UniProtKB/TrEMBL annotation:
Species of the source: Thermanaerosceptrum fracticalcis
Gene: murJ
Database matches in InterPro entries: Lipid_II_flippase_MurJ/MviN, MurJ
A single GO molecular function term of this UniProt record: lipid-linked peptidoglycan transporter activity
Alphabetical list of PANTHER family matching this protein: LIPID II FLIPPASE MURJ
Protein name from the UniProt record: Probable lipid II flippase MurJ
Length: 527
């Protein structure tokens, strides 16, 4: 990959990562505010179930749009068929908005039955609360749909910042609503904040779409062969993403019948476990996907292999130490972020237990989306569906076996095992199809990263054992303790990585230099 391409991908990754860090900080602030205001109980269980239903639709649709619309859009643009690209996008957009509008109306009308389907273990009062919240929150499905469509076009035009800002806007809106409307209207204020936040996020994308070469056209045709191709490619992705969302449903389905606060504990632990994925993994996946799609479009399979392998290695480089850090520092992290107000010691105990077992599957959860991008760039939307079906079946079977003895911890462990199996299957299948992805160099790299992470873990554990004796008694001291632990872990990990010559550290230095040089040129030229 030459300097220009490295700089483009690196710059896109950096932009997405920086904005995503901001989003995740605000996301944790949102969760902390909700935890402080309402705790981990039946009220938050009801809110979180309803809150995450639109996110499930968002996950299903966004996967289909990004992995289908972007490659097809770029394919037609590369051929110079701009009107055709616009017609395809406009048609799919209109159809999707129409279908989602019907789903929203049905969900609002029959909200109680929807909640019974997702969380059959809720008692009558919790069910009634969730049903009312659904009326306020379900319209966000439509706003998520609009945002996702426009995100596909913006990413295809190498515009990454506005789509990444949508979660930032949403989190700010929810936090503001909890502090204002929440004081008088309780959890309903948070629901209104979500509605306003998603609407503002969609409007933000519309503003920036004018900066691209794309324009909506008035003529649509669902019978056009190109449009049919898009729907044929989207269908397996929609099915696969839908099946994948069953992993979340398993939480709600079984968790609604467990002790009060179980769903909330799983939710808070999941937010922590997905922090590495949200900050860097999704940034890498989003940044490399247009490059993968272009490599396939121009039949440059060597570039495809190199880009995907590099992306997977970068993900592993950041995820492996994150696993060790979350497992070792789970209690001080949960206490620092969430323990205040209604979030008591019991809630901390429930959440740290779930966090420990969810950490086991973090590497699989992070590698899966990146490897799947490789299949989608090859316009193979069927294989990931098959793999997802297998792993969801594993998750469901293990959940049935483990939930009785392990309660919510059993659900967390089942999810981790399924995530790991999912990543291993995807890597094995793609490795057979595309030569060069799995090789000796990759295995040596992985062993070095694991060794560096273990050494880092020992250092962090030893340091925390010393700090816990002195830095206790206040949030400031607890924050200082966690900060020192993380700093020591980072230094040890970097030193071990350079000593063992992990090549990705050199790559990071190279792309940093490329970005720095581009910044100097921009300052000199005023561009």
């Amino acid at each position: 990959m030459d300097n220009k391409k490295v700089g483009t991908v690196a710059k896109a990754t950096l932009v997405i990562a920086v904005i995503t860090v901001l989003s995740k900080i605000l996301g944790f602030a949102r969760e902390a505010v909700i935890a402080q205001q309402f705790g981990a109980n039946s009220v938050t269980d009801a809110f979180l179930v309803v809150f995450n239903i639109p996110y499930m639709f968002n996950g299903i649709l966004s996967s289909a749009l990004v992995v289908v619309v972007v490659p097809i859009f770029l394919e037609y643009m590369a051929r110079g068929q701009v009107p055709e690209a616009r017609k395809i996008f406009t048609t799919v957009f209109v159809v999707a908005v129409f279908i989602m509008g019907i789903i929203v109306l049905m969900g609002i009308t029959y909200s109680e039955y929807v909640i019974r389907l997702f969380a059959p273990g809720f008692n009558e009062s919790t069910l009634e609360l969730a049903s009312v919240l659904a009326i306020l929150i379900f319209p966000t499905i439509l706003f998520f749909t609009i945002t996702n469509f426009l995100m596909g076009v913006l990413n295809a035009s190498n515009i990454f910042a506005p789509p990444a800002m949508a979660p930032v806007i949403l989190n700010i809106a929810v936090i503001g609503a909890v502090f204002t409307l929440g004081r008088n209207y309780g959890i309903y204020g948070a629901a209104l904040g979500m509605l306003v936040g998603t609407a503002m996020g969609a409007l933000f994308q519309i503003i920036f779409i004018k900066k691209t070469s794309f324009r909506f056209i008035g003529l649509i045709s669902i019978r056009d062969e190109s449009v049919k191709k898009v729907f044929r490619l989207m269908l397996p992705v929609l099915i696969g993403s839908g099946v994948g969302q069953l992993n979340v449903l398993i939480y709600y389905f079984f968790g609604s019948g467990l002790n009060e606060g179980s769903i909330s504990a799983l939710n808070y632990a999941t937010k922590l476990i997905l922090l590495p994925q949200g900050i860097f993994v999704m940034a890498v996946g989003t940044a490399i996907f247009p490059s993968l799609s272009r490599a396939v479009a121009f039949k440059e399979m060597g570039r495809f292999t190199g880009t995907l392998a590099r992306g997977a290695k970068m993900v592993f480089l950041f995820t492996a130490p994150a696993v060790m850090g979350l497992m070792i520092l789970r209690h001080p992290i949960v206490e620092l972020l969430f323990k205040r107000g209604a979030f008591d010691e019991r809630a901390v105990y429930l959440t740290t237990g779930a966090l420990l077992l969810l950490s086991v599957g973090l590497i699989g959860q992070c590698l899966g989306p990146v490897i799947t991008r490789g299949f989608y760039a090859l316009q193979d939307t069927v294989t990931p569906v098959k793999v997802t079906v297998v792993t969801v079946a594993i998750n469901l079977g293990l959940s049935v076996l483990l939930v009785k003895s392990g309660q919510h911890l059993g659900l967390a462990l089942a999810n981790s095992i399924a995530s790991t199996v999912n990543a291993l299957l995807l890597v094995a299948i793609l490795g057979r199809r595309v030569k060069g992805i799995i090789n000796k160099e990759l295995l040596i790299f992985a062993s070095k990263v694991v060794a560096a992470s273990l050494i880092m873990g020992l250092a962090v554990s030893g340091m925390d054992a010393i700090l816990v004796k002195t830095l206790t008694g206040s949030k400031i001291l607890l924050a200082l303790r966690v900060g020192i632990d993380i700093f020591i872990g980072l230094i040890v990990y970097l030193l071990t990585g350079f000593i063992t010559r992990i090549d990705e550290f050199s790559y990071l230095l190279d792309i940093t230099k490329v970005i720095a040089n581009k910044g100097k040129v921009a300052l000199r030229t005023g561009t």
